[in-house]
Structure to design on (1332 residues):
């Protein structure tokens, strides 16, 4: 067990009748996650995943019947804002949004709305959360990671999988990996996730996986220096990224001098946080 | 996505933000006519999406219509930072008493839009956002409430902005805010806002950057692309939902996930190679998308090897493998292809590809090294 | 302020809410033409701001253009609840399968807009709002976020609304919400929303009540007044910012503050008198406003005595006294005037008036009794 | 001393350079209220009221300099929403809005915004608050009321003044009178004000002054019956009000059967709350 989720978390999958939602709902169940319901407008009343998971038209009905306390969102970007607000209103405490491509102004609104409702918002455009060997609310492939003591916070899904797989090959395990997402605005930032790991007894040290764009890594560096007792390391991607271009993620761009990898590396360096940009180097760092 | 000055100004005007009298043209002799209508002197300004037009001869003052035509013809035949100038904007020339810089953008830490204002000369636009921990000259905007008049008063107050222009400033800021919301902008900048010697408050130049995620509800977005700025393939890629950026090297990359793509590029660089591109397959991968991606890569004459680095998560390796298979059937393997696959359905992905004429690598680093070797290390 | 059905429907149409084909006219022979265009049968409906048009013969079915003309001419010559009919609306007649009632209004307890939906027959519009503690069929709308699609789904779900019309219902509700916000409405009702036998989802009738406090930013509000409904003086009063309602009695009232005005009217009734009006001077009283108020009262032939009951607070008694003085100089005191003043600057108010031919009363009850005596008890 | 305000409350007057703002600021000072500043855009830097009260352009500057914790708003309806939001943002804990004629949808937004900022909002279109003999933040005439043990909550300003004057003539004093305002939506409702009086040691019994429109009196009756230990009486105005007409106050109308005086009287009756509609009767009731 580690932060945010555990085996008794009761999860609703929003968009369960879509291809991705359906596939990952099954993956989550196989991993040990309690997927108690799906929500899909106009599919209410049906059952999916070997007739084991009931589908509801609305989050309200799903929460009422199943007493779920978390939701994961797979619905397309066009409908995602509605799904996010619906989740915020439904009474769940945690909302993980996998969907990519949601307009950033919508996320600003959703973030503040969730805040007034005291809902923990993770994502969007993220890989979700995994407590290896126990439970996952997200899309992290199950084979890539083993349980252990390293907490991971990552802006990138696939990069974190590959890094966790490399760690696994070295026998290094993970307590919880939180994908905070690659968008401009994140429901949960590096610093907020770090706060949770700091008090988590299952986590001994932290790995941050960052990239170009914004100043969240710089804030994380300051937090690591002044407010963390646990050791922190960082891997950063994008040192070859040209300025003014969006590197795939909506949030990964260098603009007006903001968001360079150089600035992030300097921030970690001066905070005494070990920072690397190559995977073999990272493995050496984590072995210690 | 960024708009040209003349496009931004047209939006400003629609939102009640005062701009100088001016017109855009792509024909030098029309510049003369426009200058006659407006009355000289006029400023002739190159419309290119590049910084520092002024110092590159992209902004000229003309004292007569004849001069305006000459200036326009000069600028239209120029390249600025490698970009050819398609249009010039001819604006009335103004005597300026004071200049300000105004910006609405998003603050990532607070997840809120913010409005910044500076007196020009005190700070430059490029470094404005760096003034991170200084809250004095910025106002946070509650996204659920929107910008309010009192907030503009607060900002003006701190800058000792002249009372008599306060109403004008308020309308400009509220106009910027409305535009920011209506257009799903990521940034709206006005630089400079000027008080002229004849006591007018006007916006001389501005920038609007739009949120590409909002494309599905902002249909006009596509019309404002500046195709000249885009390398071959970027437009094609966007049509297929691929994130593609053309670069200078010779190792073509096809990766899934933005972070992994960046890490792959970094790894190529670390191993002495040169990536030919950034190519993130993004979400929702199908056969057509993979074919389209490979089509773009193989049509780039600089590409000497293709490096496929896939880690399955949301995207499944078998889906990509089917795409690669179809693409290879179509294009052959004259250009060598190196594949690394891990994660969800990696095994079946590799199984699908195993009889094809491609190289497999057990890790990303290994794949990158192989690619670098093929193109000769460099 | 309420809008006529045809006015509300014009707004509905602008907001993408589907309405039957129809046109409004004030001329009976045009009804024939309209019926021809639309195709018969049609419904001819009186446009009056009164409940129960149907039972008063204000809604007629016409099977031919000739019948439509006859129906229109019949209705246009009618009075419904004392109101003459200026216009008729001719709508296509529909075969209805199911009817619903939709309402957006403000919930005073939660200070939130709410959306209610009922299946018609289960409840009547007049009593709908009485179903106070039943939350099942209502959705609260966060005013900082606005109505969301999922909320409409929730509502539809509870009512077992047919899936195939859900998208249509959602667009209608979002249209109502946008209209509610844009127009500063206090209430937007649709009654009925119908599913026709030919499987269309249409709004047959609706009501919009606007917030008069928003008049300063909703300039069109004044155009939608139905002057026929207003008694003489009501329009004049509004021009001067007075709250005036004409009533049936003979004691003219001039009071400051709505609660005090109501209490004064109640007191008149308790003492066997009959108020001729409600007249609240409201905020920001000046001499002109008092003159205008007295002008309205004295122009009402039913008024036999004027009762002035002022308690100074925001409004100061001396300001009112100056106004009364000026009005009395202008109109004389043929109609007797009784004054009670208390509160802020009451002494100086009384001092200003003391040499005029008016009666003073030491309390409201005493003033009311004096007035009742003058008009003869009853 | 009684609820919400006392002699140490530090008040800013928004709209102090207007006629009403200026007049009532002086009245409040004369009554003993600490008016520490005024706010009036474009009058910042000047001093008013015998050069004793500084005027600021913005609430932010005024609060920063004077450490005020309350504000009263006299600005015209057109600018009032802006002034309300400015007050909510400024750090004061109490905002009393005297202004009449503010669009009701604006009040809905302001109410919820104030709630997230934990600001107590009283009004709009109200007479404010007075603790007789001590302090007032509002426009209640000073002579009309004496200190005592009756707490008053009123939808109407002038009616409450006249009633308090009648009480004064009988020697009955008031602990605090809160004008909650005559609009459709109120920052503070009967029930919310009743909650405060219930725990106020200076208040022995309560008088509610209500009128036609809405159902707040009905809710107050329920609250009095089930959640108040102190005796409650009610005076109601508008029994002669015709349906469908707005009786001066934006909130005073009977529509679709809602808001009748009959319903309110019945509610109070069945809650065991003494309810009257005539002032002489009320005086008899209060004498007891």
């Amino acid at each position: 067990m580690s932060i945010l989720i555990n085996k008794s978390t009761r999860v609703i999958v929003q968009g369960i009748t879509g291809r991705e939602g359906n596939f990952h709902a099954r993956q989550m169940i196989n991993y040990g996650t309690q997927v108690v319901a799906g929500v899909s407008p106009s599919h209410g009343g049906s059952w999916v995943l070997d007739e084991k998971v009931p589908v509801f038209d609305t989050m309200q009905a799903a929460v009422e019947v199943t007493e779920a306390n978390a939701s994961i969102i797979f619905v397309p970007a066009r409908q995602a804002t509605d799904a996010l607000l619906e989740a915020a209103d439904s009474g769940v405490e945690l909302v993980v949004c996998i969907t990519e491509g949601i307009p950033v102004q919508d996320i600003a609104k959703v973030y503040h709305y969730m805040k007034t409702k005291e809902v923990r918002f993770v994502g969007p455009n993220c890989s979700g959360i995994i407590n290896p060997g126990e439970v996952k609310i997200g899309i992290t492939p199950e084979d890539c990671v083993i349980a252990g003591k390293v907490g991971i916070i990552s802006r990138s899904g696939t990069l974190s999988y590959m890094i966790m797989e490399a760690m696994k090959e070295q026998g290094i395990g993970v307590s919880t990996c939180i994908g905070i997402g690659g968008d401009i605005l994140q429901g949960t930032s590096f610093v907020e996730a770090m706060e949770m790991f700091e008090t988590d007894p299952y986590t001994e040290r932290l790995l941050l996986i960052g990239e170009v764009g914004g100043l969240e890594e710089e804030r994380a560096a300051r937090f690591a220096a002044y407010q963390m007792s646990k050791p922190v390391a960082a891997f950063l991607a994008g040192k070859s990224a040209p300025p003014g271009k969006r590197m795939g993620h909506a949030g990964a761009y260098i603009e007006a001098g903001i968001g360079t990898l150089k600035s992030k590396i300097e921030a970690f360096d001066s905070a005494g946080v070990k920072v690397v940009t190559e995977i073999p180097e990272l493995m050496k760092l984590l072995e210690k | 996505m960024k708009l040209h000055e003349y496009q931004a100004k047209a939006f400003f005007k629609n939102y009640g933000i005062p701009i100088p009298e001016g017109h855009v043209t792509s024909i030098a002799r029309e510049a003369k006519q426009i200058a006659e209508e407006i009355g000289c002197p006029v400023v002739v300004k190159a419309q290119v999406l590049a910084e520092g037009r002024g110092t590159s001869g992209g902004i000229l003052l003309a004292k007569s219509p004849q001069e305006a035509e000459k200036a326009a013809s000069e600028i239209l035949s120029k390249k600025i930072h490698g970009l050819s100038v398609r249009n010039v904007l001819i604006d009335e020339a103004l005597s300026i008493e004071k200049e300000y810089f105004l910006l609405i953008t998003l603050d990532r830490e607070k997840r809120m839009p913010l409005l910044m204002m500076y007196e020009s000369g005190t700070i430059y636009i490029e470094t404005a956002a760096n003034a991170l921990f200084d809250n004095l000259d910025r106002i946070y905007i509650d996204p659920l409430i929107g910008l309010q008049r009192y907030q503009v008063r607060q900002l003006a107050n701190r800058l000792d902005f002249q009372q008599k222009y306060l109403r004008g400033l308020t309308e400009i800021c509220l106009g910027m805010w409305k535009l920011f919301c209506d257009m799903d902008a990521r940034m709206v900048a006005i630089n400079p806002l000027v008080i002229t010697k004849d006591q007018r408050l006007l916006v001389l130049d501005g920038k609007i950057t739009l949120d590409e995620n909002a494309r599905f509800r902002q249909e006009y977005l596509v019309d404002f692309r500046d195709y000249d700025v885009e390398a071959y393939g970027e437009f094609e890629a966007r049509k297929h939902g691929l994130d593609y950026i053309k670069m200078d090297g010779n190792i073509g990359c096809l990766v899934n996930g933005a972070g992994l793509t960046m890490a792959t590029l970094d790894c190529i660089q670390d191993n002495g190679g040169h990536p030919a591109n950034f190519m993130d397959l993004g979400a929702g991968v199908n056969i057509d998308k993979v074919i389209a991606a490979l089509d773009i890569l193989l049509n780039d004459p600089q590409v000497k090897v293709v490096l496929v680095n896939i880690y399955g998560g949301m995207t499944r390796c078998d889906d990509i493998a089917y795409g690669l298979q179809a693409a290879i059937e179509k294009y052959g393997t004259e250009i060598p292809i190196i594949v690394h696959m891990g994660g969800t359905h990696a095994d079946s992905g590799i199984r699908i590809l195993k009889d094809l004429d491609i190289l497999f690598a057990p890790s990303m680093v290994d794949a990158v090294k192989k690619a670098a070797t093929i193109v000769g290390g460099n």
Observations:
- Residues 212 and 259 of chain D are 5 Å apart (CA to CA).
- The longest strand of chain D covers residues 147-154.
- The radius of gyration of chain D is 18 Å.
